[in-house]
Amino acid sequence: MEKKVTNFKSCLKAMPNILVSCRNEKGEDNALAVAYACNCSYDPPMVMVGIVPSRYSYHMVKETGVFVVNLVPEELKKEFVYLGSHSGRDEDKLKALDMKIGEGDKVNAPVLLDCPVNIECTVVDSIKTGSHEMFVGKVECVHAKEELIMEDGSIDYAKINLL
Ligand SMILES: Cc1cc2nc3c(=O)[nH]c(=O)nc-3n(C[C@H](O)[C@H](O)[C@H](O)COP(=O)(O)O)c2cc1C
């Protein structure tokens, strides 16, 4: 028999497993695991990520107005879990994990080179929805491993085993 659900928390599935990387004005790099994320416009291309204000990364994105969305392959599960359960407030997580860092082409934020796709974004708006602040990011540049790019310039997601 049908029953009413009483806990509505995070009821929309599936949620992606992404890593949002960012930098503060002091030049510290950080990344956190984010599941509250989606495309929110294709013209112009925009994505949205939700960050809880208590996260160390929140203040970084607020300060600089930029972030990078890194798609996570299955083999980076350990790193994803670590970045989602430790805080940059206490340690340099990226260094602790020995993750390879590149520079954004268009934004002043770190790019996680171990991830097959990196989406550089500039914050154009944000909405405090409740627990999270949803940052709307204009997609400035997308990096992907050469073998993942199809003839039309889009990404062949079938070739990536996403977490
Ligand atoms: C699977 C998973 C999904 C998560 N999704 C989010 C999210 O959407 N937004 C958020 O603010 N934190 C999310 N977190 C929690 C942060 O990643 C976590 O609190 C992290 O330690 C914050 O790091 P920071 O303090 O260095 O920013 C998630 C964690 C996990 C494991």
Distinct ligands, ions and cofactors found in the model: flavin mononucleotide
Q: What's the name of the CATH homologous superfamily?
A: Electron Transport, Fmn-binding Protein, Chain A
Q: Overall pLDDT, averaged?
A: 97
- Spans of at least 5 consecutive residues whose pLDDT stays below 50 are none
Q: How many domains in all?
A: 1
**Cα gyration radius (Å):** 16 Å
Strand content: 35-45%
Report strand order across the widest sheet.
2-1-5-8-9-4-3
Alpha-carbon distance between the termini?
34 Å
> Could you tell me the number of beta strands?
9
Structural class based on helices, strands and sheet pairing: mainly beta
Shape: globular
Number of alpha- plus pi-helical segments: 3
Spell out the blueprint of helices and strands.
Elements: E1 18-23, E2 29-34, E3 37-42, E4 45-51, H1 56-64, E5 66-71, H2 77-83, H3 93-96, E6 101-103, E7 110-112, E8 117-128, E9 133-144
Antiparallel strand pairs: 1-2, 1-5, 3-4, 4-9, 5-8, 6-7, 8-9
The chain binds flavin mononucleotide (FMN).
The site of flavin mononucleotide has 19 residues, from strand 2, strand 4 and helix 1.
